[in-house]
Amino acid sequence: MAGFYEDMVAIYQLCGGSSNLQASSLTTVINELSRETEGVLVEHLYKSLKGRKYLIVLDDVWKTQAWDDVKLLFPDDHNGSRIILTTRLVDVAVYANPSALFHQMQFLNKDASWNLLRQEVFAEECCSSELEEVGVFIARSCRGLPLSILVFAGLLSMAHRT
User: Fold this and answer.
1) Nearest to residue 10, comparing CAs of 30, 32, 28?
2) Model confidence, pTM
3) By C-alpha distance, which of 78, 146, 89 is closest to 117?
4) How many independent structural domains does the chain possess?
5) Do 22 and 64 reside in the same domain of the chain?
6) What's the CA gap between 37 and 5, in Å, rounded?
7) Strand runs (DSSP E) across 43-132, as ranges?
8) Are 21 and 62 found together in one domain?
9) In a 3-state reduction of DSSP, which class is residue 56?
10) Is 162 within the bounds of a domain?
11) β partners of residue 58
12) Dist CA 46 CA 129 (whole Å)
């Protein structure tokens, strides 16, 4: 977990928490933070956020224990601060806040995956049967994940259509 705390403090400082950061490089900041104990880093982060309005995004949380490990780092001053947690697991979302609304993403089916890829790559152009066959295979390989499809579409849209 120490790496997480180091990342959090470094990100905070990069976003304006430290006025002398302009004179330091990221490497210097990370080296300085790596000498601190986990407890010092936790205290520094908490004190830095105390009384301030913040937005924290915790992306791709897989375990309830991970939420338990980090939730106390963020002061709850009832000042409009928010923590956004993304997870693939409903039980983690419910555990983090049983009364909160959450949005459960669905994977795209094969047709929707191909339609998204085709629209992003070809827009209004026609797609040859050979390219369609390859495109359907690529879309299927993305396993219904829109971001994966869009990444491939971005790459394919720059390629020659032969």
Assistant:
1) 30
2) 0.56
3) 146
4) 2
5) yes
6) 10
7) 55-58, 82-85
8) yes
9) strand
10) no
11) 85
12) 58
